[in-house]
Amino acid sequence: MNPSPWDAPRAAYLLTAAMADNTQTAGAIAPGAEMSAEWAGFDASEQQDILTALGAQTRLALKMLHDKLGMEIEMDWEPAAQVACSGALVSARELIKPAPGALATPECAHCREIIAKALCSLQIQAYFRLGFTPAMIAGVCRQSADEAETSSRH
Ligand SMILES: [Zn+2]
Fold first, then answer.
1. Nearest to 56, CA basis, from 152, 148, 150
2. Which of 20, 46, 97, 116 is most open to solvent, judged by the fewest CB atoms within 10 Å of its CB?
3. Residue ranges covered by each domain of the chain
4. Under a CB-based contact definition with an 8 Å cutoff, are residues 55 and 63 in contact?
């Protein structure tokens, strides 16, 4: 299945939902948490579109956390830094900016997956701190995925 670019936000929400399903303790998600198998089914440019969408969705979750609780959270990059290329952290930070620049494009597939995992788990952690259980987070993401699909039809 090859989704067109407008499917990227939906795919991003579904990947986050899948990760929330697999999360036992949302407060302590490691970048090593399993990425949904679907991720590998997307080609490089689709993965890039999904990363951009994930970045926007994560930014929204972080903003909500900041607005409601005045709280800032950061990904724990220590474990990921040992396996990712040096540019991965820069890309991940760039992706959650309001207008991601050229640095937001990780060239290696390995790093794209690490960043995708990091963004999914950062988003899950933000919702967790806002009082959502992992099951609720998965539900919210699936609902948002359906809305992303609906709005793309207009
Ligand atoms: Zn890499």
1. 148
2. 97
3. 5-152
4. no
Structure tokens at 50: 């999904």
Place of tokens 């919702």: 127
CA 115 – ligand 1 centroid, Å: 10
CA of 30 to the centre of ligand 1 (A): 18
Question: For residue 12, how far is its CA from the centre of ligand 1 (angstroms)?
Answer: 20
Secondary structure of 68-94 in the HEC alphabet?
HHCCCCCCCCHHHHCCCCCCHHHHHHH
Q: How far apart are CA 146 and CA 122, in angstroms?
A: 21
